[in-house]
Amino acid sequence: MKAYEEVADFIARRGPREVAEFRPSAQALERVSGLLQKDKTSGLNSDERRELDHYEDLELLMNLARARAQQLLLHEQ
Predict the structure, then answer these.
(1) First and final CA of the chain: distance in angstroms?
(2) Quick check: helix, strand or coil at residue 64?
(3) Does pTM surpass 0.70?
């Protein structure tokens, strides 16, 4: 099992319903959108690139956790 999968499983088991329903805040979505737009137009500085990379890592992790949480919820029924 990959490290991301282990962490996703850990998160999902703490509150499957909350994890399955999690959505980023409007502020976080706006920030990512702004970084993506800037990356396409003028480019990102190193801090912004690192921040965008972190958002991408978190998105992967949360997608895995949501999938695990949905599986757990299905097994509860």
Answers:
(1) 26
(2) helix
(3) yes
Q: Tell me the CA distances in angstroms from 74 to 7, 10, 63, 65, one per residue in order.
A: 20, 17, 17, 14
| CA-angle at 12, arms to 16 and 6, nearest 5° | 165
Enter the tokens of residue 42: 């003028």
Question: Per-residue b/e over 4-39, b at no fewer than 16 CB within 10 Å?
Answer: eeeebbebbeeebeebbeeeeeeeeeeebeebeeee
**Vertex 11: Cα angle to 64 and 69 (nearest 5):** 55
Convert the pLDDT of each residue in 23-71 to its tens digit: 999 999 999 999 999 999 999 999 999 999 999 999 999 999 999 999 9
The DSSP output letter for 42 is T
